[in-house]
Amino acid sequence: MLVGPLLGGVLLLASPAVLPAVVALLSMIAAVSTSGAVEGPERSPASSSLRTGWAAFRRTPALVWLIGGLAASNLATGLLQAAAPITVVHHFHSSTASVGAVWSAAAVAFLVAVWVSRRAIDRFGIWRVGVVSAAAATVACLATALAPSFSVYTVTVAVVMAGEGVMAVVLRTLRARLIPAQAYGSTLAVTMLLVLLPLPLADALVAVVPASGLPHLLLGCAAVQGLALAGCFAGLRQHQDSCEPCRPTVPAPREETSSSVGVL
Q: Which of 141, 157, 169, 128 shows the shortest CA–CA distance to 226?
């Protein structure tokens, strides 16, 4: 996360065609190295598994609210990432390498936020931390669209990613609690697909909207993100019982007869 953005900026300086070529090569290596056949009698077609996961997803209202919030958050992050090169180069007249510096600073903020989030959740509770991080990410996203200088833009992007880091811990913790155990793998796959759908949509929006309209696009997306996250946490609070961690049931002690007590 720290080296990647800087390396991307260096590759852009070398040639605009080098960066997508390297990304494609790394993606191919990752796909080949992680692929493998599923063995055993429990192997089932992917379509059947996705149908099972989709059915479990629809039967869990709290999970629907949560995935809606995650999807809106990913849309905002995707727009911010896709628009960053245009914003930095055309609006602030900085070099392409500066884009890597922005995301390196954001990566540091993200990692620190993730490291702090568990302590904050233990001290203040998952709901307070989630609401505060969602508000911080939304306000910072609005500020990013209105940033008057490159330094302010860098700070606001870092705050956005810090808020996203804490929200990632909060919402994924809740997601792990909400997914039914009997269909965990298939339901998790469905939720991941739904959460990732906004990313190509964000790229398409940035490609269609002219550079002068990107701040307005970010403002609108930040507003949508704020409304979606407010609805997400309001919906989750309505199903608070299902969001609580499962605790193992301790069997009640048996009443012993006088003879058994004497033996003990």
A: 141
Answer yes or no: is pLDDT of 158 > 90: yes
CB-based contact 110:165 (threshold 8 Å): yes
- Provide mean pLDDT across the span 197-217: 88
Q: Domain map of the chain by residue range?
A: 61-243
Tell me which residue of 231, 228, 138, 130 sits closest to 173, measured CA to CA. 130
pLDDT at site 44: 54
Write the pLDDT tens digit of every residue in 3-16: 777 787 788 787 76
Query: How wide is the angle at C-alpha 1 spanned by C-alphas 125 and 226, nearest 5°?
Result: 45
- Of the candidate CATH numbers 1.10.3370.10, 2.130.10.10, 1.20.1250.20, 3.40.50.720, the domain formed by 61-243 belongs to 1.20.1250.20
- Dist. CA 157–CA 141, nearest whole Å: 7
Threshold 0.70, pTM exceeds: yes
Contact 144, 80 (CB under 8 A): yes
**Residue 195 exposed, middle or buried by CB count within 10 Å (0-12, 13-18, 19+):** buried
